[in-house]
Write a structure and sequence with these properties.
alpha/beta, 4-stranded antiparallel beta sheet, 7 helices, 32% helix, binds adenosine-5'-diphosphate, binds magnesium ion
Length: 213
């Protein structure tokens, strides 16, 4: 949940209002698409919601708790435990296998990394856990990133143009997987400039000049 979130970027003299009083709630099991032209603040929205950047003002809540003023360490902890992030590309650590990539956030917390194989099966990557990212297709790498996003107790999925680099067939496979994972109970935010991608969401919101329309 974002409550009146504003975000100023850049130097003080030439500050850009990347987010301007944005309020948005995404419920468990709901996939919300955020559409808007380049520069409208979509990626900044993902960064703030993903606790990668604190808002200049306003609040970010996770399951009702204010997480917008955490220290960097606490924000990183909340992120790796509760939030799955998928970007356009290069989501995986290249020197780790798909299974090891999935287990990484859990291992950082000394949580037993169970459920990785099941998560990979769920996204259609059965038997591929031992492969390295450069041994699978771009689409399969994105599917592995989605699997990682839903391993463990993490229930928020934030995806920034996750199919931007994929052909349409592969992109649709990734989006249907993402939608299925959200339908199983996650809260998802999907950033895109493509109306066909937004069709996969339950609800579409639009941004312009940092504002939610
Ligand atoms: P989108 O993802 O919709 O293309 P962004 O969230 O990346 O938009 O950017 C929103 C606005 O903030 C744009 O005007 C962009 O130029 C500006 N911006 C993004 N990052 C920075 C930064 N680090 N410093 C200054 N301005 C930035
Ligand atoms: Mg962007």
């Amino acid at each position: 949940e974002l409550q009146g979130v504003s975000c100023l970027l850049g130097s003080r003299e030439r500050a850009v209002i990347a987010l301007d009083e944005v309020s948005l709630t995404v419920s468990p099991g709901e996939l919300v698409a955020v559409m808007g032209p380049s520069g409208s603040g979509k990626s900044t929205l993902i960064h703030v919601a993903g606790l990668l950047r604190p808002p200049t003002s306003g609040r970010v809540l996770l399951d009702g708790a204010d997480v917008s003023r955490l220290t960097r360490a606490r924000a990183a902890e909340a992120r790796r435990r509760r939030i799955g992030l998928v970007f356009q590309n290069r989501n995986l650590v290249p020197t780790l296998t798909l299974a090891e990539n999935g287990a990484l956030p859990l291992e950082l917390d000394n949580v037993p990394s169970v459920g990785i194989a099941e998560a990979l099966i769920r996204v259609g990557l059965e038997g591929m856990g031992g492969r390295f990212p450069d041994e699978v297709s771009d689409g399969q790498a994105q599917l592995a990133a989605i699997a990682r996003a839903f391993i463990g107790p993490r229930t928020v999925l934030l995806a920034d143009e996750p199919t931007g680099d994929l052909d349409q067939t592969t992109g649709n496979q990734v989006l249907s997987t993402l939608r299925r994972c959200v339908d199983a109970g996650g809260a998802g935010l999907l950033v895109t400039h493509d109306p066909e991608v937004a069709d996969w969401a339950h609800r579409v919101v639009r941004m312009r000049d940092g504002r939610l329309l």
